[in-house]
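As a representative case, the lines below give one protein's residues and fold tokens.
***
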Amino acid sequence: MTAGPTVPWLSPDSEDLLAAAVGLGDDLSATMAALQRLPAELGAGTTTLVVAGMGGSAVAGEVLQAVAASRSSLPVVLVNSASAPLFLGPTTLLFAVSFSGQTEETLAVAQAALSAGAPVVALTGGGALASLVSDGAGVVVKPPPGPQVSQPRAAAGAVAARLLLVCEQLGFIGGVTADLVAACRQLEIRSRELAAGGGIAAEVARQIGRTIPVFHGASGLGAVAARRWKTQVNENAKAPAYFGVQPEVCHNEVCGFGQHGDVTRQVLTLVNLHLGTEDANLTRRFELFAELTSEALARVVDVQSEGDGELARFFDLVMIGDLVSLHLAAREGIDPGPVPTLVELKERLTPASSGRQVEGGTPAQAGSPPAPRRR
């Protein structure tokens, strides 16, 4: 088991997100140990994989798409809305991913898939999605038994691992179990460094300070990590953050620093996330982007992941990024857990829909006080 934090440096932390972040390796291990066996015929005849999910649950689909690009001949299509693709049918396997089982967009796509005769696998803890898919003769894959986190974003890593393992079990991709074992080894090492409040996460948070971070990662898992860092800063630190993808940013974003340097150099920090698997051309693009824009930035920070294989390095970046966002919250005395703004947004969009939710917020948070504002 991963050792818990020895110093309570994150306070307040009403939803125990620190323990969730440093316990990622344990979550991956539990997921591997408890994964249920699926019917072998479930994947027969499949020509396309579709993953429907929002917010923290969407990360699973992004990880699968990135991994499958080099390991599977099947296309992986992501759906991050209530609009189901017209091609859904008997040869399309839909993975409906919802932490709560109440996400309205994912429910809508799952219903459309069932109506179109597409097989559906729901990765959820229950709720309306589990009932819908069970009644529709689909398969429900639930999280392993044991303590459960209260926020979807805290379970994103384990959900991604569950989706990858299901796809391995059905024969769509290979090598997942071995890669996750390597990831657990790396996360055990990293958690010992970060749990007490020090290490690379504390240093990166210090360098970001009160600037607005822009996270860059290479196309594939690096890009997924960059987006994860961005959304964790948004939800945990209640602060703005942005992300970009190499090499795409070298075709557009790099041009955007020719004006207003007197402003941007005070407020923007570029954080480059390196998996360590990028080729020489991509590495050079990271370097050139930093060289060409550094005078218009507060600073440039490089974060190098560690581990044996791309999944180990990806999850290493996930843990570091989660801890960076928690450090940014701690610097301002912000409780990283509650996201009352998401709850309010959902209520104002669908005031009569008390059972539905935005991924990331729970109905119990409706009475939470507004997020602290930075002075």
Notes: The first helix runs from residue 17 to 22. Residues 1-6, 362-375 have pLDDT under 50 and may be disordered. DSSP finds 13 helices and nine strands in the chain.
